[in-house]
Design brief:
The protein has 16 helices and 16 strands. The protein is of the alpha+beta class. An eight-stranded mixed sheet has the order 1-5-6-11-10-9-7-8, sandwiched between helices. Helix 6 runs parallel beside helix 10. The longest helix is centred in the N-terminal third of the chain and has 20 residues. It is elongated. Bound molecules: adenosine monophosphate (AMP).
Length: 419
């Protein structure tokens, strides 16, 4: 037997309803804020992620599904969406026809991580990128959209954490001092952090290892290195978040390790999903478009993990509303599908969800099936009624039963259809 690839999951018919409902909520929220959907290929040239995410990032250095295709080009399954969206923005010169481009996506991502609860090798994200404005309101819109969506889905336990990374030059000064500070305490650091010290010292800040967090007490603070403009900008972001009622915590150790990240950065965590608590993360990246060959263009965005959100919903016991219902189940007294099938087709063509028995089961078994499917109505076909050209319709919630001419069935269902 061949199984699915480790870390990749099937989404079976019984589960896909909650995916579709989540996706519909995502699309509706973005539509209201005037974001257009973007779909990019599942694979890209590996070079895009090396440049656009950075070779020091784990998702590129260790976790990328990269391979050579027949022409010898190195191809990678996308581990994230910001680089592909920015590539498309530059390639199609989207900024030429519109000064501000706001795009959202829903797509599978691929990372060779160690599979565990909330961590897969193929997983799904939705998110947005807004390119063309450095307005603080756009940083807030990004955070607020992510937050409102999670709230709308029913999550109540959410921690929004924000920080400002300032400008790359100020950050570089800070990183220099941080590195020097940590060098003096190298022995106290975790192995991971010792290794990161040279490649990406900033990432030591968000290490979850106790030893690292202790070593950081008394370390230089990034906020002290920001210039006045960045500080004012961050204050504006905070005030605007207050104005739209998004609660947040300023978390000075929240960072992103890559140079093109600028100013605002944020993460939304759910305390109900255990160690993989980040549901979404994002921030501003004013230098990325230029890095990928476009004119200098500011940008801001976020990405949220769908599997983790579904896990958080389950852990918070958010009740699921069932919408995939059967309007009518056709119970045939004759074991000949040619009797029931045309009725099912007629109802389906008229817009109803209709089902019947393909397995030649007894009337009792057909009724059991109608109950299992929670069909709203059962239609009885056959017997003396059929000889008189009639059918019976039973309302499964109220219990009442009506007999009517076969040809008025569709009209009757229309008239008695529940909202
Ligand atoms: P990132 O692009 O790493 O900032 O991730 C954004 C969000 O995607 C995270 O907050 C998670 O919800 C989700 N995510 C990242 N990696 C995985 C993974 N391997 N499996 C499932 N979800 C993930």
């Amino acid at each position: 037997m061949i199984s699915a690839i480790k870390g990749a999951k099937d989404i079976l018919p019984a589960e896909s309803g909650k995916w579709r409902r989540l996706e519909a909520a995502v699309r509706e929220r973005f539509r209201r804020a005037n974001y257009g959907e973007i779909r990019t290929p599942v694979f890209e040239e590996t070079a895009l992620f090396k440049r656009g995410v950075g070779e020091s990032a784990d998702i590129v250095r260790k976790e990328m599904y990269a391979f050579e295709d027949m022409s010898g080009t190195s191809i990678a399954l996308k581990p994230e969406m910001t680089a592909p969206v920015v590539r498309a923005y530059v390639e199609h010169k989207l900024g030429k026809s519109q000064p501000l481009v706001k795009a959202y996506y829903l797509a599978p991502m691929f990372r060779q991580e160690r599979p565990q609860a909330g961590r897969q090798r193929q997983f799904h994200q939705f998110g947005s990128e807004a390119l063309g404005s450095d307005a603080a309101a756009l940083d807030v819109e990004t955070i607020q959209l992510a937050y409102d969506l999670l709230r709308d889905l029913g999550l109540t336990k959410l921690d929004v954490k924000i920080n400002s990374l300032g400008k790359p030059a100020d950050r570089a000064k800070f990183v220099g001092e941080l590195r020097a500070y940590l060098r003096d305490r190298e022995d106290a650091l975790s192995e991971d952090s010792r290794r990161r010290l040279d490649v990406n010292a900033l990432r030591v800040l968000d290490s979850k290892d106790e030893r690292d967090q202790q070593a950081l007490d008394g370390a230089p603070k990034l906020a002290d290195f920001l210039d006045e403009e960045s500080r004012d900008r961050f204050a504006e972001v905070c005030e605007t978040l207050d104005a739209v009622g998004v609660p947040y915590l300023v978390e000075e150790r929240l960072v992103r390790g890559l140079d093109y990240y600028t100013e605002t950065t944020f993460e939304i965590q759910s305390p109900s999903v255990g160690s993989q608590s980040a549901l979404c993360g994002g921030g501003r990246y004013d230098n990325l478009v230029e890095l990928l060959g476009g004119d200098p263009t500011p940008g801001v965005g976020f990405a949220a993990g769908i599997e983790r959100i579904l896990l958080a919903l389950e852990n918070e016991n958010v009740a699921e509303e069932k919408t995939d219902k059967i309007d009518a189940y056709i119970v045939s007294l004759e074991k000949n599908p040619r009797v029931a099938y045309p009725v099912a087709v007629e109802l389906r063509r008229a817009g109803f969800v209709a089902e019947f028995d393909y397995l030649g089961r007894s009337v009792k078994a057909q009724m059991r099936e109608a109950n299992r499917l929670e069909a709203e109505r059962v239609i009885f076909l056959g017997g003396e009624e059929a000889e008189r050209g009639e059918v019976s319709v039973k309302n499964m919630s109220g219990g009442e039963q009506t007999t009517l001419p076969r040809e008025s069935l569709v009209n009757h269902l229309r008239e008695t259809r529940s909202a």
